[in-house]
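TOKENISED FOLD:
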Amino acid sequence: MSWRGRIVRNPPAEDVESLPELEKKLLKIEEIEPDMPILDVAAKVKRTFPPNEFERDDGSTGKVKNVILADGTGSIRASFWDDQVEIGEKLSEGDTVLIENARSVAGLQERPEIRIGGRTNLEVNPDRIEVGEMKPKRLKISEVGEGLDSLEVVGRITDRSEISTFTREDESEGKVGSLTIGDETGTIRVAIWGDRTEVMDRLERGDVIKITESYTVPGNYGGAEIHVGERGKIETNPECEEELPPVSEIPCEHFQQTKARRIE
């Protein structure tokens, strides 16, 4: 626009009658890219995380709540900031959400994330919306990164810990155990929470396990770690298409020695 140009806000109706209607398109999660200024999407809530408080550079306190959303094409993290946290707190796993006028940013490992802001409209369990189920995604251990959901992985146990107990903020008692598993591409730490720790009594070093419906988080000292919660499943010595190497031949390039973070 040149210096002589001008912008008219809310021009007369006769000037806009001939303009076409803006067609809204619901994106599939696999279509979302970083830095989209506006987007609409329908998805199911796969996982919710407690809100976190943080201190900004100016000394003020902020708050953020993250949820994992999924459809038949993939999963994505959505974050609710400050005043929007209250909206995120009302969501439960399994809810269907219709999100309009959100935006995206580059998050962990440059993966897209959805940001819920003041102009965003969010409708929970709308009657007219159907969302496909996300299929589990099997990966080699070297392919496992942070922020994944509905993960499936097969590995041989190279190390295991004893089950430990801890007290949550609400004074209830929790349990967590950990394993290190590996394949021909490397090793990774697995944290097993709550009732799922019962399987650890039957696991030995050298066993092959198949983990499904798990998710990943950043490890305390870098890299990703796999978490198995109440929806996760562990199958011992399953039938495998490929033979895994013995413990002595499993490389350790991708192993990160971490402690379980209490985010159950």
Remarks:
- Helices lie at 13-16, 85-89.
- The first strand starts at residue 26 and ends at 27.
- The chain is about 5% helix and 40% strand.
- The chain has two domains: 24-124, 137-249.
